[in-house]
Design goal:
With 168 residues, the protein is mostly helical. Helices cover 64% and strands 0% of the residues.
């Protein structure tokens, strides 16, 4: 079953739960529910973009609160970027193992980011190594708060699209 067919056939509660797994922001989920039925995946993805474009800074922050922290837990980082670790389903493999110094720097950078901006660091991590994630974090740390929120919003929109595509 395609993502749009799944959402169109689902009860309101099941559709809400599926959409919330893609993006936890209440405004986005409610906006998407109001656009059902979608009829096609193209219409679903278009609706996701249209609703995302209506998100206020508060709505974006709501979305970010539903996203796990990257790098908050060194053991989780070791699992994710260890030499034998596998990427989550549908994500690209091929990231080299991260050394301890990179993992520590990623954790510490995330803590600095959250202290500076008041929200977690979000990046579409598909196919990115720990070193690439760290480089992106370091590039974004000097941003002004409003500009950085827009960057985080764009990353969350990419993540949401990937999650919508995975609905089955």
């Amino acid at each position: 079953m395609t993502p749009s067919a799944l959402l169109d056939a689902a009860s309101l509660d099941d559709a809400r739960a599926s959409l919330t797994r893609c993006c936890g922001a209440t405004h986005w989920v409610n906006g998407m529910l109001a656009k059902r039925p979608f009829g096609s995946d193209t219409a679903l993805f278009d609706a996701a973009e249209v609703v995302w474009a209506t998100m206020t800074p508060s709505d974006i922050l709501d979305a970010l609160t539903h996203h796990p922290r990257i790098g908050a837990d060194l053991d989780e980082l070791r699992k994710r970027y260890g030499a034998t670790a596998q990427w989550a389903a549908g994500e690209q493999a091929g990231a080299a193992a991260a050394d301890e110094s990179t993992l520590h720097a990623l954790r510490d950078g995330n803590l600095r980011y959250e202290a500076r901006f008041g929200h977690i660091f979000v990046v579409c991590a598909t196919g990115k190594s720990a070193a690439e994630m760290l480089a992106l974090l370091e590039v974004r740390l000097p941003n002004e708060a409003a500009a950085e929120l827009q960057v985080a919003a764009a990353e969350q929109a990419k993540i949401t699209r990937i999650r919508l595509e995975k609905l089955r």
